[in-house]
Amino acid sequence: MRTYKKILALALSAAMSLTLLAGCGGKDSTTDASGRVYWLNFKPESDSVLQEIAATYTEQTGVPVQVVTAASGTYSQTLIAEMDKSAPPTLFVIGNQDGVAQWKDYALDLTGSAIANELNTDAYNLYDETGKLVSIGYCYECYGIIVNPDLVQQAGHSMDEIKDFASLKAVAEDIHANAATLGFDAFTSSDMDGNSSWRFTGHMANLEYYYEQEGSIWTECPPTISGKYMDNFRNLYDLCINNSTVPSTELATGGHDAAQEFKDGKAVFYVNGSWEYEGVKDAVPNATMIPYYCGVAGEEKAGLNCGTENCWAINAKSSEADQQATMDFMVWCVTDPDASRKLVDTFGVMPYKQAAESTNGFLAAADEYTANGCYVMNWATNFQPNVEAYRASLVSALNQYNNAQSDANWEQVRTAFVDGWATQYQAING
Predict the structure, then answer these.
(1) Judging by beta carbons within 10 Å of its beta carbon (0-12, 13-18, 19+), is residue 147 exposed, middle or buried?
(2) In this structure, what CATH number is given to the domain that contains residue 113?
(3) pLDDT digits over 251-269, tens only?
């Protein structure tokens, strides 16, 4: 098991940047301000909302709440650095089993806690090998392929046509072939920079891991994977990069704005998740989401990829006063109508009895697939070992492939997936 000291040593040379915006406000409550809350957030896109929530709580209770948001791709390094300070985070994210292995000793056991008692399901919680509740899901999300149905229709097709990879491919390739005439292309850009690559090395990679489970859902990180479904990953990945607003040779450097391309009506399909709904709904009111069709047998019964990396952990090394203050804040976040509404609109469905209900259209699509008997693709990607190093190797291999789409270069992608998994598992577990 990796100790904290070892984690710190590994990160000494890592570059770290973060945004610090402290919520503040005057004491305006009968509640005694005892303890403090310091939430280390890992999603830059949620920072402004969390700052609002923090400020509101401080105004209502007098309890100081600070939100620090790690820059994109730097959360692990930021967490290590902040935990080494005299006033470390009291609330942080352990979002996958890799994180559980690394940080379980720094996480308070949440079994039977006030926040756990507010849950309506434990499906999104993370446990260690002893059964300790290490971190607790504060929302769940879905990802797949966001679609503009109006553009599908303008291109002479219908959503009813798209029910598997073959039909998706036929529609996408037809749109791409006629892009100049239509004024829009099939897929948005698929950049491999830090702001975008996670959509493919994390999310789309999940289709390989999900199907590799072969119906036996992982409960811990396997030491190796076979890559049995890499050809299916290639099917969908090739479709994205070869029928796009941007040539594949331009993806390495990034700089393209896939979200804006979608909102501006420049592309029909946009690989992303339910958290994008609020950002696109005004520009594309009829936007919906479809599964990762990739050519797997029976995929006409596939649903969306649903799960979460948004899992709260309380710092077991914090003072009892800070732990209690943090627990109280968490409970307020999932029970207060306004706070939970903001969190639901930002992150997705909150699995808590008193939380606001979601109005997210992409999550509604996920529910519709499930209601129609489609299977949910769980987030097996959460088991990626030594996740940042592992994904970095995937980015490197995919960039090589993007520049020259040969079978030889695809073998390098396969190697990064399969051999890289074993290598990073060993790096974590010895």
Answers:
(1) buried
(2) 3.40.190.10
(3) 998 999 999 999 999 999 9
